[in-house]
Amino acid sequence: MRKTLGEVAVMCGGNLVNKQNEDTVIHGVIRDSRHMSEGCLFIPIVGENYDGHAFVAEGLRTGAGGALWQRDRGTPPEGAIIEVDDTLEALQKLSKAYLREVGSKVVGITGSNGKTTTKDMIAALLETTYKVHKTVGNYNNHIGLPLTILAMDMDVDIIVLEMGMNARHEIEFLAAIAGPDVAVITNIGEAHLLQLGSREEIARAKAEISSGLKSEGLLIYNGDEPLISEVLAESTTIKPINMKTWTFGINPDNDEYPMGMLNHNKGVIFTTNVHKEQGIDLPLLGRHNVVNCLAALAVARHFNVTEENIHKGLSHLRLTAMRIEQVVLPTGLTILNDAYNASPSSMKAAIDVLQSMKGYRTKIAVLGDMLELGLQENEFHAEIGSYLTADKVNLLYTYGPLSAYTAEAAKVHLPESSVYAFEDKKELISHLEENLQPRDIVLFKASRGMKLEEVVDALKEKF
User: What CA–CA distance (Å, rounded) separates 276 from 218?
Assistant: First the structure.
């Protein structure tokens, strides 16, 4: 973002303390003082255990073009300061005003699983035809989404925004900032059961994305999940005038569904009832990613991306790390790294991917705890163990106290000698290093908090 401090003050509802700084041009917005850049606007956020205002004076001395200052933080330092009532609210107002001024089309994405992968696919398809800006990393909350918007160039055609949540009305708030032209709900899973209590409440939280849709906006959602349709029909669900819908999924009663799928070790080739003639070669593993791709295809067609460019976009697809990332190590050991997040539905999808892989000596699953599942967490972990059969996996390693339930339930279908349960990460790494062979394939799947990527990194060094 390139704006004068005078313009920024108006856009965020603040007051520029020194009018002589009115024409100072700022270049970009920073909230982390460690990443201060020349001419940036520094926004000090107040958190439970930190206060960015402590770094404002130093930031101005080291090159920041200006800074916001929250009035209840005392007297601001000398320099280019915009006083506001609340710096976080000012950040959000600024991003909303900037997005409206730029006029980019907006695609908003939410869902329990697959939203980051779907975001990456949508951006890859749209980038063949338009200038696109997208959420990077996990910048998908009330701070990250505004910062993503403010990092956008003024000539961007379409911005693709991922929206995450932990509670009701958080998606509604993000959608109000973004004002999507197109909204996508990938699915409804079990993540956040701890906070929301039921899948119905999770569906209501995800469906809040429709509240921010522009008039006659398009909502694309997973039609295999009946809860989404049920929630959309509720009188309390806010929707725009003349909202359009498009459903995708495996079932043939969706607007788009796969008609044939051919797995290979690098991905899936599939056709749909819409794309019947030429197979779509998706360089991602798993049927669940075919479903995610259907959502991306719907967005691309909405923006008139040609069939040729759809194929081109998928061929150049680059994903955020640790989403079924396939790595073949120098020794020939293959790793499937899906250690970014986990829920029962995504765990089963990852196991299905492992089952589909052909030509390996041993198929090994390393599964860690799934977090934030609420009162039924033990049962959910046992359910994963029951899902594991000899045709899906040859060896099972679990990591964490909850995954001990997975290990115990797995012994119904797998020999006890094929199941190992660990609560010490070093012991897990040591056992894997001693027993893995070059032609093995190993799946890693767990919630982010289990940090299974540390095990992956150790194996990369060893093999």
Answer: 24
Backbone angles phi, psi at 30, to 5 degrees: -125, 140
Phi, psi (deg, nearest 5) at residue 316: -110, 20
pLDDT value for 264 = 82
Q: What is the pLDDT of residue 125?
A: 98
Residue showing tokens 């990332």:
325
Q: Render the burial of 330-366: b for 16+ CB within 10 Å, e for the rest.
A: eeebbbbbbbbbbbbbbbbbbbebbbbbeebeebbbb
pLDDT per residue as tens digits for the range 68-125: 999 999 999 999 999 999 999 999 999 999 999 999 999 999 998 889 999 999 999 9
The domain 325-462 belongs to what CATH superfamily? Mur ligase, C-terminal domain (3.90.190.20)
Report pLDDT for 339. Answer: 87
How far are the Cα atoms of 287, 365, 395, 410 from residue 390, in angstroms, in the given order? 20, 12, 9, 10
| E strands in 215-354 | 218-222, 244-248, 258-264, 267-272, 280-282, 325-328, 334-338
pLDDT for the residue 319: 77
- 409-433 residues labelled b (16+ CB within 10 A) or e (exposed): bbeebbeeebbbbbeebeebbeebe
Q: How many CA atoms lie within 13 A of 404 on its CB side?
A: 6
CATH architecture of 2-88: 3-Layer(aba) Sandwich (3.40)
pLDDT < 50: residue spans in the chain: none
Tell me the C-alpha distance between 206 and 183, whole Å: 11
Does 103-315 match 325-462 in CATH topology? no
Structure tokens belonging to residue 168: 């009701």
Scan for tokens 């958190």, then name that residue.
47
Phi and psi for 40 in degrees, rounded to 5? Answer: -80, 165
206 phi, psi to nearest 5 deg: -70, -35
Query: What is the C-alpha separation between 295 and 308, in angstroms, rounded?
Result: 18
pLDDT at 127: 97
- Domain spans in the chain, listed from the N-terminal domain onward: 2-88, 103-315, 325-462
CATH assignment of 103-315, among 3.40.50.920, 3.30.70.1030, 2.60.40.420, 3.40.1190.10: 3.40.1190.10
Please give the pLDDT value at position 322.
54
Q: In one letter, which amino acid is 416?
A: E
CA angle 131, 133, 139 (to 5 degrees): 175
Prediction pTM value = 0.84
Distance CA 122, CA 141 (A): 19
Report the pLDDT value the prediction gives residue 206, as an integer from 0 to 100.
97
Pairing of strands 41-42, 66-70: parallel
- Chain centroid offset of residue 100 CA: 24
